[in-house]
Amino acid sequence: MSWDQFIYFAMGALLLWGTGAALAYSPARKIVSALFTLGGVMLFFVFIAGLWVSLERPPLRTMGETRLWYSFFLPVAGLLTYLRWNYRWILSFTTILAAVFIIVNLLNPDIHNKVLMPALQSPWFAPHVIIYMFSYAILGAVTLIAIYYLIQGKRIKEPARIMEMTDNLVYAGTACITLGMLMGAIWAKEAWGHYWSWDPKETWAAVTWIGYLIYIHYRLKRTSSNKTAMVILIIAFVMLQICWYGVNYLPSAKQSIHTYSS
Amino acid sequence: MKNSSRHIWEQPWSYREGILIAAGIGLSGLILQLFLGNIHPTLFAAPLNLIIGALFMTGLLAVYLLARKRPLGRWLTSVAATLPALALFLLLSIFLGVIPQFPSGSETALPDNLFTSLGWYRMTTSWPFVLICFYLLLILGLTTLRRTTRKQEWRDIGFYLNHLGLFIALLGGVLGSADMERLTMRVQEGQVEWRGTTATGALKELPLAIQLDSFLLEEYPPKLVVIEHESGRMLPTERPESYMFEGVGKTTDLAGYTVEILEYLPHAAIFSDDSITRVVPMLMEGATAALRVKVTPEGGAAPKEGWVSNGSYLYPHSLLRIDETRSLAMPLQEVKRYTSHVTLYTEEGHTRKSLIEVNHPVMMEEWMIYQYSYDDTMGKYSDTSVFELVRDPWLKVVYTGIFMLLAGALFLFFAGPKKSRT
Fold it and tell me: What is the reported pLDDT for A62?
């Protein structure tokens, strides 16, 4: 499987996800829309697996490859949320966001080759990046909910229920970024000699983590406002974007050892 | 309990006091920073870090025992105290993540500007950063202690794993950083070395010695690129293409040319004078990889045939000229793996044979030995291996915290937030 075939798998998956998202609004049963979404997820995964085999290394090294996993996990997060919380709009949100990242990958493909530098040849590589991409997808879904909440304003019907869903997703997402970060720390000790070096990528991972900790602790106080909580989520997601790729454009990036894209 | 009906500093305290106290700690740090400059981590090596740790723990317990029933003690474990402290730490971390950092202890002159005075070029050893860290640790410790006094339920397992785990990892990391030693050691094949070099260039004798039996470096297959003569830039400029060798007889499209691989010599010698270049197979030190290729431009121009090589310390690289402005070139091969076969000796007379490579360090006498580098001017013919030796006596403490946090994160994932909030 090579990158040239991506467009067919991506379009097929988007078609299935779009159908699933549209069916969620129709009177059709929940399972129908879930099956379409699942079909898209499976089709997309066939491409990832094929790329993995043909590259002879986990496709997790370049930014484009991480975007690939992100577009894969977004509908997964959307589907789980839909099945658990029944909000019809969540699938269309995650489909649109997945489409954005697919389009970025189509317009701006990375150079993909088999090279995997020695520092990345570790059993920690795949779990560390995959769990991060999964948490980014969950937290991306949460950000969409936060934006939806703020735009709808007073029209929100069941604010308490939406907050409960948001809390659940943030707890799951934060748990995953904690796991990803600590696996990274243990790996860094094996590869670079220290578990935490305040490398710019590590610093921004900590910043992102603290951002979500602030949300979690803010929500513990009963007098907290829902709106402020949602704003915190959007700010935390901006930090997450900086951690993921924005950090490459910062003055501190010159010193980063976390750079692997050609 | 409406906040607006009370004056500031009047109990019960809330966010306002939290913001003021956090700001006050930041400001005190700033004043210390302006007068004293950055903290020198080496000054806090054992036993001073142990004393500070003991004092901090005593202070923490004293505050807890004296103030736990008082409003101040309650407030210190509240969200209103936690969030401003976290927010200030977040702010300093953002500066840390944006501003390039200079290693502590190095003699490089810092730029002459405000950031230097504020300590922001060495944020992690600046007073505001360290003080906020300890303030957060105080809140974290008190909150954990206070939780023990209420009726325990199963959800508290998650609370303790996360809060106590973070407390242990953070305190161990902060105090232990002064005791950590990192040295590099260059060893030549067949030689024994027992002295390491610190970051400042000082030599240090170690309780162990490394003998380099052999050093091996494996490379990925060679790649081909089309470059512009004048600039040496790879083409197409906006998205350079490259082709990794996959076998003789293969054909590929590369930057608008069709390239056919005719012959591959993994070990070649190149003899050239003004008129002629001869490439012959030769299994020897310093041999280079070479590919004989046929390049056909688009649009039916005559194809070019010849050798391309990336050279070695013995031979210069050779290009295949395609036309007036362009050539086919072979960049240096990327490194796949490098390994040192070593014999390790201790002062007590223990001997051990080991294999050290990236991601596979070896532990000996409190020291973790890492494959760090090699002589890159010699590439795969390097007979020198560079190791990094790291000693971190506090690692077990930090790992205890990290593993508690890992378990806590799993707990958080499966248990989720507390259900009833009424």
Answer: 87
